[in-house]
Amino acid sequence: MKLNKPEKLQKGDKIGLVCPSFCTDQNKITDTVKLLEELGFEVKLGKSVCAKNDYLAGNDELRKNDLEDMFSDSSVKGIICQQGGYGATRLLDMLDYEVIRKNPKFFLGYSDITALNNAFYKLCGLPSYQGKIGAQLPAVKKDKFSYDDYLQTLFSNTKNRLLKNPTTHKAYTITKGIAEGILAGGNLSLIYALMGTPYEIDFKDKIILLEDVSEKPYAIDRMLQSLKLSGKLKEANGFIVGQFTDCESTSTSPNEVIRDISYLMNEFLGSLGVPVLANFCNGHDMPYINLPIGLKVCLNASNHTVTILEDFFK
């Protein structure tokens, strides 16, 4: 697929802030805007950022229109999601992808935003970042490794950039080897939820990122089993297993077999014969490495690195 790359961000550019999923904590908006302004950006707040409809940031129509308006606004050079959560999948069959295709822009979000990141690549050729949302920028700012990575994500091109965990957080190898492919995937629950839909994530010859939060081992077991039964796991060129935060079993029953995340990843991915790198710093924790969905990468599971092989920006 020919990529539809965005223009490189510059200080002074306008960043659009949106909430395609959950409504956000209103107290956090001021902090997000302040930090983006400190980085030299002007900030435009989307209508969804201040909206609330039960747990969603406004109704589906409002959130859909907000995204399209940000892409079609020529003064907006990049879009950052303020919040993840639930609700992005509700927009997939509503969005006008031609608007997005004609107005490629820097786009960043993770968790529930996995659905949009992969749809934008699949339907528009637009690469995007599986990256920390606006509400978490204060935490990113406090972590030097994560903040340095965030600055490079915003302002630097990516060709030949080598990504690896800080020395304080050890990645480990499940299966040795080196593989190349387009990076796809993200949050496991969203990958699972999209199966059987027109927005299902294509694993064929891809490097697949997997991460999640607050899912117990039996639920992760079920999702991985579904991916195995579908034949998708054996189609990938390799896997990056990110952070699985708060995903350990809390059972105290002596009769229950406790299967942890490392056990499950070894069971489902370790026999595929492709490189698998685990405990990579991408997920719902810190430190955090922002990863470009839709770009070609080289995964070296033996030395715990990911190299981006092409530029993100034009």
What secondary-structure arrangement, pairings included, does this model have?
Blueprint: E1 14-18, H1 26-38, E2 42-45, H2 60-72, E3 76-81, H3 97-102, E4 106-109, H4 114-124, E5 128-130, H5 137-142, H6 144-155, E6 161-163, E7 172-175, E8 178-187, H7 188-193, E9 206-213, H8 217-230, E10 238-245, H9 261-269, E11 276-278, E12 291-293, E13 296-300, E14 305-308
What does the model show?
- The chain has 314 residues and is α/β, with parallel strands linked by helices.
- It is built from 9 helices and 14 strands.
Named CATH topology of the largest domain = Glucose Oxidase, domain 1
By secondary-structure content and strand pairing, the structural class works out as alpha/beta
Query: From the coordinates shown, what is the CATH architecture of the largest domain?
Result: 3-Layer(bba) Sandwich
Radius of gyration over alpha carbons?
A: 19 Å
CATH-defined superfamily of the largest domain: LD-carboxypeptidase A C-terminal domain-like
The CATH class of the largest domain, by name, is Alpha Beta
Largest sheet entry = 8 strands, mixed
**Low-confidence spans: pLDDT under 50, at least 5 residues?**
none
The rough form would be described as globular
**Widest sheet: strand order?**
6-14-13-8-9-10-11-7
